[in-house]
Amino acid sequence: MKLIITSLEQGLIFAILAMGVFLTYKVLNESDLSVEGTFPFGAFIFAKFISMGLDPIVSTLFAFCLGTLAGLMTSILFIKLKIRPLLAGILTMTMLYSVNLRINGKSNVPLFSYGSVFDLGSTLIILVILVVAIKLILDTFLKTETGYLVIATGDNETLVKSLGANSNKYKIIAFMLANGLISLSGALMAQYQGFADATMGAGVIVVALASIIIGDTIKKNSNWFKSTSRAIMGAVIYKIMGGIAIDLGLAPTDLKAISAIIVIVFIAYNNFSVDLLGMKNRKERRATNVKNTKPIKDF
Question: How confident is the model over 144-183, as pLDDT tens digits?
């Protein structure tokens, strides 16, 4: 039972990370590898402000706000300096590694003697409330005019430009919001585990992508679950699967390999399903064409 609760709590923290990556990877259709720098950046920002005597909630909010600057940096690199988004993210991640070491002057900051947002009550309940609130805010944002234009920029940037809108502005908004959420996730993880470490971002991009892929696999044909809900479910399921693997006797050092295998299995399943879906879609298209009374010369 303890294993399930621990996996669930960690899964909820990574759910915020997954929702951030969802914005760039799924909505904007761009690759942002600055994630592995932004995640510990949030942890170190929290460590800096909490050690200065600030309230844990205020320190966590600072982690979100300053995390958006990492997204701003990446977006400026590929929009203004014409650097490919993939390379821009790697450059931001590399710079953030040095910034993280500069913030507190060391690579590992213990936080056991400081307060955290989890002191307010049950860790699980706090995380559930926080994740649901972020999901609702994000869903609401994506229904606004700005949100629709962010989605449209990812789907068809040419169309957005033809409407007279500046698509670069919506890319910057998406990148800033995404990195803010990733930084927030890092700050929560630092409070959960009781320390901030410069290496805690290694591999989190795999966790985020795995969460999105797993969520899409399980509920990809459902109209009831939004993409943000699927990302949350994917993160929780991913952590529970990893926890079960460890509980079955695998060494914690095998966790990276387990993570990669989980991703490979779900991607392979998706590819197989896509083939089946393609057959299904062909059948649906044939059925639609049969019902279509439009004269053939009009096609």
Answer: 999 999 999 988 888 888 888 888 999 999 999 999 999 9
Distance CA 165, CA 244 (A): 48
- How many Å from the N-terminal Cα to the C-terminal Cα in the chain? 61
90 conformational bin, left if phi > 0, alpha if psi -120 to 50, beta if neither = alpha
Would you put residue 121 in left (φ > 0), alpha (ψ -120 to 50) or beta? Answer: left
Q: How far apart are CA 6 and CA 2, in angstroms?
A: 6
Residue with tokens 């039972």: 1
11/278 Cα distance (integer angstroms) = 32
Taking the whole predicted model, whether its pTM rises above 0.70 is answered as: yes
Task: Note whether 9 and 192 are within 8 A (CB).
Answer: yes
pLDDT digits (tens, 9 = 90+) for 56-89: 999 999 999 999 999 999 999 988 898 888 899 8
Cα–Cα nearest to 74, from 177, 147, 144, 196: 177
Q: What are phi and psi of 298, to 5 degrees?
A: -80, -15
CA–CA distance, 16 with 218 (Å, rounded to integer):
19
The CA dihedral of 125, 127, 132, 135, to the nearest 10 degrees, is 180
Q: Answer whether 152's CB lies under 8 Å from 145's CB.
A: no
Return all residues near 241 (Cβ < 8 A) that are at least 6 apart: 262
Q: Which two tokens stand for residue 93?
A: 């991640």
CA 31 to chain centre: 12
As given in the structure block, the two tokens for residue 122 are: 């049950």
Using left for φ > 0, alpha for ψ between -120 and 50, and beta otherwise, residue 29 falls in left
In 3-state terms, what secondary structure has residue 105? coil
Max Cα–Cα distance, the chain, nearest Å: 77
**Structure-derived torsion over alpha carbons of residues 148, 79, 86, 272, reported in degrees to the nearest 10:** 30
